[in-house]
Structures are given as structure tokens and as C-alpha cells.
Protein 1
Amino acid sequence: MAEIELRGVTKRWGAVTAVEPTDLRIDDGEFVAILGPSGCGKSTTLFMLAGIYAPTDGEIRFDGAVVNDVEARDRNVGIVFQSYALYPHMNARDNILFPLRFKPVSREEAGRKVEAIATLVQVHELLARKPSEMSGGQQQRVALARALIKEPQLLLLDEPLSNLDASLRLTMRGEIRRLQRELRVTTILVTHDQIEATTMADRIICMSKGRIEQIGTADVLYHQPDSLFVAGFIGSPPINLLAGIAAGRNLRVGEATLSLERSVDGKATLGVRPEALRLGERGVAGEIDDLEPHGRETIYHLRTPLGPLRALEPGEAARFRIGDTVKVDLGRALLFDEAGRRIADARPALAA
Amino acid sequence: MNPALAEPVPVRGVDDWALLAARARSRRRMREILLYAFMALGALPILIPYLWLVTVAFSGRTGASTFVLWRTLAVLLPALFLWSLLRLTLRPGRVLTAIEIALGVFTVALIALLSGPYLHLDNWRFLWNSNIADTIKGASGMGVKYPSVWTAFGNSLLLAGTQMLIVVSVATLAGYYLSRFDFRGRTGYLKGLLVLQAFPAMTLIIPIFLMLYWIGLLDTLAGVILVVAALELPFAIFVMKGFFDAVPWDIEMSAMTDGASRRQAFRLIVLPQVKGGMLAIAVFAFLRGWEEYVFVTTLLLSKSNWTMSLYLFWMRDDMMGTDYAMVSAMGVFYVLPSVVLYTFMQKYLTQMTLGGIKG
């Protein structure tokens, strides 16, 4: 287990910069998720930590020591790949044993360790099977066992759940979290799935275009996104984003005018979470264009003077029908400046 | 209104459907019969010469008689025809298997009865006679000394085997490097491999002869081995590259984070994945060496270096009054290793196209 630190770590492939200079600290025993769309540099960061790619610039430190030039095999890092990367010609037992081949471990001790780890990840009855004879979930458990058997100081998970079906994903999510808590191993999960990141990790690092956009808990990222990117990337159904123009304490969005608590000038973007919208007696008039019943909630597509809005209301039955006219109140709204940074104290609200 | 819609659609009765189904069935059956008949006819000109070779090897006396061949075919062809009919009419099951076995036994017995009396092993005397020239019937082979067929067999084995080892090890390492590493001129190299494949090796025969002469490898097996291996390599490298391309990067990276060095990852993890490709190119390289004729006849001069192909050639060519029956036996002896190899390695040889296409 180790404390991980990145100082100005950069990765360039020729003229393309995959990871911009990045600073990051991960505490001993912490579970961190790197979240971002594909191509944002999250896997590259992971492979640099593993020692598969060498950073172009900057320092990677494990417990304070620079490990840039330490080879992958000497870093004692466990990885679970998206494809699981099990060795096809070996059965599960040999797969799990593989990392111990390169360590001074006696045969008896290795056998004991395999038994222990197989019990931990519940693949005990599969040890004689080849990867091709296992389901995706079983392969993943074996891959976890293989990554954990060498007692790594850092566990890296590269999109470990994306090849599983929905229900299995749910089980494995809890499973991985339980293992991490039991073993207290510093863990970094790379994912493009916000639910995976928010449900599993202590902290989330949101990346875009090779740069860290924001680091924080799921709550902070959801309610106080630093940037338009984070606001748009996190949340499902996604946040409503409407372009507007601010002048002093007024914000013009579509045909409506909103009031601000602080003067802002220039182009701005209004962001409202679908569940923050209130449908009922107050606010601007809107017409319901379409609705999606989801069982425990309903999503309404509204046409309002502000522009098209998506609203989410909990409740088993829809309160309105297509074509109804309702009043829409904004509730808690966010404001972003022209560069996409959030203006924290503007508090946009519908003018009375 | 569309006039076509106004037309009353003819209503089909149940009988009509049955009729259509029957017609479809018989059409399918007909197509099957024609297909098999076509394939059988196409196979005959290939199979009959081999059958002839075998019958002559075991029954011929000096000449290449067709006597036993016709007798065998007279039994075999009707039997095969009958078997095809059986397969087309009866459903697979215990009854069919029983009839098939009976037919097989009957055919073999009939062949034994008709051709059996004419079979003998005299044509195989080259296997135990050290100087075959003395035993040629009615030939003036006096004073000519020929090496034992086993010398030629050993030479061929050495040529094919060593050449195979060189091709497999070089192609495996080169294929891995081409698949995994980027280096200046990689694309050009790959194109070069394909272009090399396009030129007939025959055009190089004079320069190769001169080169071997200058190096001092003319009339040595080592020289031929190097030449044949070099000519076989471009194709083998290309095939191996295709196999390595199909091995995911992930497992190699995983092995390296698990504590393996790059070389260990290659040996323990990547190599087992391309075993099929290695076996396939090994078989092809071996057969290529085994059947090699052009280069051995040009580059090997002394009798002690004869390979099987040369031995066969001189047996047919050099004696007054060629004993075609013995030459046939030698031919059978010569193709035997190829047949055995093909039979056991078929599985890997068919894999090769799969791996090769991905290149």
C-alpha cells in the first residue's frame, strides 16, 4: 500500500499530448476513480502509473520515492484490464499463480495464497478451468485474484466492469468495493461510467482532453461542478444547458430574463439539473412536448420561453399529459462564464 | 387504384403447399447429387494416378502395368458409387453404419481376391539392398555404384528438418518484432516481404550457384539448407506476423506488470498463443525441404549428397531399362512422410489461413 503522487506528469506521443502536466496526490488506502470520456488520457495515466508507458515529463512518486525509471515488473502494481487479459493457455489457478513465479515464494506458500485469494473473490470451484470456459464475471474475478495475490501496493482497474452485463456489473461494483475496504489497498479505477465512479470511489478525478477538470467527492462534482464539462458529463439524465447573455444583474435566456445576485457581463451558460426544476404553480409557462414514464419517475420534455428543458419528477404516475401547459420554476441553477468556468455566487433565478 | 391489387389472389389449398414442399425437397436432393457427382469427377484424375502408383509399387514386375489398377478400380468405383447412394438415401444411424461396414468389408475382400495373387514386395528391395544398381533386372548397371536409399532419406530428413528449424525460429522472432515494434522502414520491410514472394526463386539460380561456389558451400547440404530456408522465410515471417497481430497487447502488458521481463512475457505468455502458427509454418517448411528438387539438383553434385528427389530422378533416368515398378515403390516411400505429416497436422494447417489473413 502506498501513497501516490504525480508532479507535472505529462505524456506526449509525437506532436499529440495525451496527458497535460498533471499534479495529483492519492492517499494510502484511498479508492479513487478517474472519470472521463474515451480519449481523455485516463488510461494513459493508468499505464504510466503501472510502468507500461514512461511519462514524457514530470515525476511519479510511490511513498515519496520517484519511480519513473522503475520497470513495470518491479513496481508491485496489480492491474485488472478491461479485457481481463487472462492468459488463455493457463487455467485459473495458473493464471492466479503467475505473478508468484517471479517472487521468492515456496510452492506450499503459493498454494496457500491461491486458496486464500480464490476464497476471497469466490472462484474456488473454477480453479481448474481455462478462461475460455468461464463467463465474463468469473474471468473478472480471476483477474482480480491475479492482481491481488502479489499484495500490490497499488491496484489499478481499467474499465473493469464495462464488459459485464448490467446485473453482474451491480454485483461486481459492491464486490470490488468490499475487497478494497478489506484489503485497504490504494486503488485507482479508470472508467467512463459516472455511476461506477460515484458509487465506488472515495474521490473522483474528472478528466477531459488530457487535463484534470475537477477532483472531489461525487456530491461536490454533482452539485458544485467547476466547469461546464463536469456539469455536462455527470448526471443522468444530463443537465439542461441554455446559452444566454448577461448584462449587469440581468441574464437573458431565450425570451426570458433572469435575475442574478452579482453583476456578470457577456455570454454565459445557464445550467439546471432536471430534478431541480419545479412543475406547478410558479414560474414561466411551459408546454409539455413529450414525456418518458420510467416507473419510479417521469421525465418531461418542455417547451418554455427559456428554451427546451428536460424535467424529472419522482412519483409512480405522470401528473401531466402531452400538450398540457404548466408553470416551470428553476429551483437551484448554475451559471457558467464564456470560458466554461462556474460563477459560484451569481445564483440565477427567474425574475419575479 | 392499382390494377394489380384488384386481381384476385389465388387461394392455395393444403395440397398445394405439400406439392411445393415436395418440389423443394427434390430440388435440394438433386442439387446435392449433382454437387457430389461433380466433386467426385473432379477428384478422379487426381486420385487415380496415386492409386496407380500404389498398385504398381506392390504388384508391378519391371513395367508400369495397369492390370491391377483396373481390377482394383472395377471393384472400388462401384463400391464408392453404392456408398454415395446409401449416404443420399438413408438417414445417418445404426443401420447405415452397419451397411457401410459390411460394404467396406466386402469391397476389401473382393479387392484382395481379385488383386491379392499379384501382390509382392520385390519392388521394395531398394530398402535392404545397399547397391541397387546390381539388382536391376536386365540392366547394364555393372560397375555403377549407387548410395543406399537410406543415405538419401537421411539427407532429405536433414535438409528438411534443419531448414524447418531455421525457418520456424527466424520467422517467429522476426514476426514478433514486426508485429510489436515500430522502427524506421517497417512498412517498407513488410512490402518487401510481399514483393519477394512474387518473384520466382528460379530466376536467382545462377547467382545463388556462384555465391555458394565463392563461399565454399557448393555441393554441401548446408548450402542448400541456407538457400531453401532463405526463400521460404518471407512467407513464413508474414504468416507469423499475422499470428502475433492476433495476440492482444493486454496479456503481454499484464505479464510485465505481474513481474515478467519482456523476454519472459514473450516466452511464457505470447509464444503459447501462436503455437498453431509455428506448427503450420513448420509443416510447410518441412514439406518444402522434403520435396525440394530444383536447388538440390543444381547445387549438389556428389552422389553421397543425394536427397530423395535426386535419388528418384537418377533411378528413373540413369539406368538402362528403367525398372518402373521399383521407381513407383520409391515414389510411395518418398511421399509417405508427407502424407503422415499432413494427416496429423491438418488441424494446424487450416489455421494458417485464419492467422495469415489478419496480417
Protein 2
Amino acid sequence: MLVAWRYRKRENSFIQSFDPRAWVIFFLCFLFSTLTFWDVRFLLLFFFIAVFSLVTSGVKWHEVRRAFLFIIGLVFFFALLTFLTGRGGSEVYEQEHLIREYRASFSILGWTPVLKVTVERAFYAVSQFVRVSSMAVMTVLIPYSLNPALYGITFKGLGLPDKFAYAMDLTMRFIPTFGRDFQLTMDAQRARGYELEKISGGIVQQVRKLGPIVVPVTIHAIISSEDIIDAMDLRAFGVGPRAWLDVLTYTTRDRILIAAGVLILSASITLGLMGFGKFWVPQVLIQMFS
Amino acid sequence: MDKKFTNVLISLVVVLALFAVVMFVLGAKEPAEGAMFNFSVDQSSVVSRFVFVVIGIAIAFGVYFATQANKAWEVGTREVVWMAIGAALYAVFSFVFNGTVFVVPSASQVALRPAIAIPMFFGFAFGPVVGFFTGAVGNMFGDALTGFGLSPQWSIGNGLIGFISGMWMLFSDKKKSMDMVFYISGALAVIAALLFFLNRSIPNMLYFDVENGIFGDAQISLFAGIAILIGFALIFGVRYFFKNEDVATAVTWGMLGNILGLLFASLSDIVINGLSLPATIVGQFLPAAGPNLIFAAILVPMLVVAYASTRRQSGR
């Protein structure tokens, strides 16, 4: 049985008023442009685009609640981690300006935990949060707003050959199904007393524990693929050039969206090459704490 | 050679040449010397990421070009469905295991990924094309699900893992080719581990920050450094003690794929993120490739054996 993403036709949805190809192109331009910047001032623009798309998408909060809480939690956790350890940030800044230093009153094996709160670390955490969450918001919206019936023709329209476009279509359709299968297998094994979380044994033992989940899910997927293969063979898949059920046509608004995406991307790359958009900290704060 | 392939090849070469001119002629000097771009900084990463995607695809295409007549390259209905299944499984597994299983800190966010067994197994069982698609597309969707955006050069690196895992089909003499692969991977593993031991004492490393007292880093680094040797030893053991030719082929080629694919991705970070060679090998390649080998040595044989028995049952 296939499980589908939670797509449905939404009236007044900004995203869904576009050709899926146009939206995918815009999405890719958006992602690569965001990756160019570390400067919060630039990143806020992308954050604004992401929030705008979210608000106008017509997706209800209760539909995306779980996905969002998970992603925002993860992003927040990583931002917090880089903030506490100062790790990762040292790639983009060299000097740190101390705001306050917390020193633990105890020491473990001669090591005293020290938490340095610096201007750079704080801003790095904020930048990281804005950067990753804008990308995440845009990505989460895709399965909710792209009609599964149009996956194949979308990738075909983006220039992939028939067979690979169809493979991409199937991939996107299989992901939720295998996610469900994974959960089912996990529950079934747990009912038999399987414990993944139990930490015991060496590294080999730990890895072997994954076997009872990875093997059944994979083998089941391969066996059930035979049905799909038969169905496709019976319909003479791949014998001649493929005809698609739906036809996509670009309208003016799609062209505008693509143009906007390409414009944002080229502007970002140009700005990046000119040296703009690097990690930025307000001068006022630096002076205040130096 | 039909026209379509020549056209694709020519356009690839042209794109490559264009990027090469931009990167090495215009961008090689320091900005002060009048170079237009300076590619050792983070900001230029978009362009150089693309370059490495093109290079990675060109490598795969080159291998295809050289051995076109081989049956391993046929893409029929079965391969299309297997590609999709492999990619979807890889995406789902990377998504569920990325956050839930322990994470090794390193220069970038490189997690322990038991899911790596999927592209290796699909490459081995269904050929290099399926392997490449599984690794590349699966990694892309996996990253998208986790919400980390995308780093295309790592996707291509993952694709190469699956691709190389399937390349055993191109050689007529299985045993001889396997031995060769074994020696090459062994040599690369030892070189990488040596680099780790030589560079442990260098104080200015990003990920080995003793001064700030980052937790447990020393221990994890040591484990990450020698994990590749542990993995190599495990694969050696699997190959010589299990006496199953399929398992031996799968793990040996999977090992080479893992080492070369990740080497490709981490070497690309020298250009993209401006890391030094030891930093990228010790900070990114080892923490990713070492644990991957351990997962491969244990999970891939399980999958190969299970798949062989289902094939016997169904007669397909």
C-alpha cells in the first residue's frame, strides 16, 4: 500500500498558483542563494520570503505542526550547541569579544567547564538559526503543495530523461510509504522485546542491533517492488518515448517567478564574489564589549 | 558512438573548461594581486559546489563511456523501480538514524550513518546506475527531510559510493579485481590513518580544540581516527572468514566506494570551504569514512545474505 504526502488542493494558495516546475526552480535558486550568506541582514530577507510562502501557502498549522516542531527543535538544538561550544563558528570569525564568562565551581578530572558568552558566538547562533530555518520552512512546504500526480512530468519538464523522471517520481512517492513501513517494523520488533535504545555491548554489537530493522524493511521493499515492476511492464514501460497524462504549460506568472529566482541567485552570487554577506556583527556591540 | 552521448560529453567538457578558467586563472591569486575572485573563502561556495557536482558526474560518465558495451549499464523497468526504492530507503534511513543514533562531532555536520549500507547494497545487487541514483538522490532527499538544506557535492560523493559498489560487474575476473580493490582501499585507509596520527599534535585544528575544553573530544577523535582501521580489519575478517563470494564482493567494493566517494566529497571541501588537506582528511573524511566502514562490514553482509535467500525462494 502506498502512503501519500498530505497534499490537497488549496484555494488561495500562493505556491499552488504556480506551475510546479517554476516553483521547484525558484526553490533551488532560493536554497543556493541562502547558502551564500552568513550575514543576518541578508538572511532576514530570505527568512521573510520563507515566512511569506508559509503564511500564504494555505497549509493549516495542525497539518505541519509535527514536522515543524521537530525541525525547529533540531535547528534550535544545533544553534544552541554551536553557541555553547563555539564550534563551527571559528570558521567564519577570528576575534571574539567577551560579554561574560561563566566558570563552573567544580572540575572534572582537572577540567573546569567554562562558558564564554561572546558577541560573535551569540550572533553566529542567531545567523545559523535564521539561515537553516528559512531553508527548512521552504523545504517542508514542498510535499504539502506539490501534487503527487505531477511529480513525474515536473522532473521531465525540468530536463530529466523519461526513465529518470519516473524514478524521481517513484522516489518521492515511496518515501512516506517506507517511513510508515519503518515505523511498523520498529513497533513489531519492539513488541517482540527488541531494544534499540539499550546501550550495551561493543561497537559491533551496537551496529548489529540495527539489523532487525534495516534488513526486513529493505527486503520487504525489494519484494513488494515486484508488483510495481510487473504493473509497469504490463503497460509497456520504457518501450517507446513516454506520454504523460498531464501537460504543464508556463504562464506569465510562472515566468516571473523563475526570473525572480534566477535574479536572486545571480545577485547573491555576485554579492558573494564581491565579498558581501560574510558573517556580520554590529559594530556597536563590538565597541561595547571590547 | 551515437550523437547524443557525444553532445552530452562535449557540453560537459565545455562547462568544465569554463569553470576551470574562472577558478584557476581568475581566482588563483590573492585579491591584492588583482585576481577577480578569491576562491578560498566561504562565500564563493555556490559556484565551486557546482564545479564539484560536474566533476563527480563527469567521473561517473567517463567510466560509463569507457565500458559502454557492458550489460551492467542497461536501465530497464526493474532498474527504474530499484533506483526509486533505493533512494527512498536511503532517505528514510538517513532521516531516522541521523538524529537518533549518536553523532560524532567534526568540522562540519557529518553524522554517523548506518544508512550507508543501502547505497552499497543497492550498487552491489543492482548495478552502478542504481547505486549512483540511490546514493545521490537518496542523500539529497534525506538532507531535505532533515531540513539541513543541501550540499550537492556530498550527494554526488554518496552517489559515487553506490556507483563504485556496483562496478564489480564491469570486471570479468572477479577474484583478481577484488584483490586489487582490496589493496587500494587498504593503502588509502593506512595513509588516511597516518595523516591522523601525524596531525594529532597540531594545536590549531578546528575540531581538536583543547584550550576551550570541549567535552570528550580527545577520545572521540581517537576513535574516529582509527575507526577506518577497525572497519578495514572487520572487512578483512568478513572477506576471509565467511567464505561467501557475494558477501566478499559486496563489502570489498563497498569499502572502495566509501573511501573514494567520501574522499571526493571531503577533498572538494578544500576548495569550497577553504579547509587545509589535513583538516579535511582528519576532520571530515575520517569521522565519516571510518564509522561508515564499520556499518558496511556488518550491515551489508546481512542484507546480501537475506536478499540471496529471498531470491532463492521466489526464483527471480
